[in-house]
Amino acid sequence: MKRRKVSNLLGLAVLATVFERPMHPYEVASLLRERGKEGDLKIKWGSLYTVVGNLEKHGFLEAVENVRDGARPERTVYRITDAGQAELEDWVAELLAVPDLEATRFHTGLSVMLALGPDVVDQQLRHRVGELDRLIGDRVEALAKMRAELPRLVLVEAEYQLAMWRAEAEWVRGLHEELTTGAIPGVEEWRRYRETGELPDMAAFVENEGE
């Protein structure tokens, strides 16, 4: 991934929103919330004004006017610059084209799951599937509502997340079944290791898988 002057993904969200038209940070935040972008970008709202300041510092945004709404404090309206538009387009192109190879928390957990016993892992996987099913149900319901108001073009990221959750749930169910039935080699050796502390012979696992 390219090293960027402003790497916070909230900066990308700000550029993409201000690209539509000039607006002040409070309006940017309101639109992002309205469009349900919090889940997609893991937004930390407390850093919004810092991010906007950094975008302005590096020439990606510029202030065009100050506005006042009644008794509220004066707000600065920003617009995207040519450099900001170029940065936005390059950033989005990179995100779409380059696979993200950073390990997820789940990936890391799988890599060290032998620290737990197979029965505990089985329990945690069942819990994960339940959580995924809940997320899938919530997202299906939310998408049904949003599709009545928004075009599909602005909902594809929600569709992608739904597809990823469904694929993960299917994979986790498969792993859970293999652990439960003993179809995956080495489960008994793993259980014995957790009970006795005696390290299993990994070579035997490989030989068993080839049988």
Detailed description of the structure:
The protein is mainly alpha-helical. The chain has 10 helices and 2 strands; from the N terminus they run H-H-H-H-E-E-H-H-H-H-H-H. The protein has a two-stranded antiparallel sheet with strand order 1-2. The model has no long low-confidence stretch (mean pLDDT 88).
Secondary structure topology:
Elements lengths: L8 H10 L6 H10 L3 H4 L6 H10 L3 E7 L7 E6 L1 H16 L7 H7 L6 H30 L8 H26 L5 H10 L5 H9 L1
Antiparallel strand pairs: 1-2
Q: Given the C-alpha coordinates, what overall shape results? A: elongated
Write down the overall mean pLDDT: 88
Secondary structure: helix percent: 55-70%
Distance between the termini: 42 Å
Quantity of strands, as a count: 2
Radius of gyration: 24 Å
- The total count of helices amounts to 10
| Strand residues, percent | 5-15%
Give the uncertain stretches in residue-range form. Answer: none
How is the largest sheet built, in terms of strand order?
Answer: 1-2
Structural class: mainly alpha
User: How would a textbook summarize the main sheet?
Assistant: 2 strands, antiparallel
Output the helix-strand order: HHHHEEHHHHHH
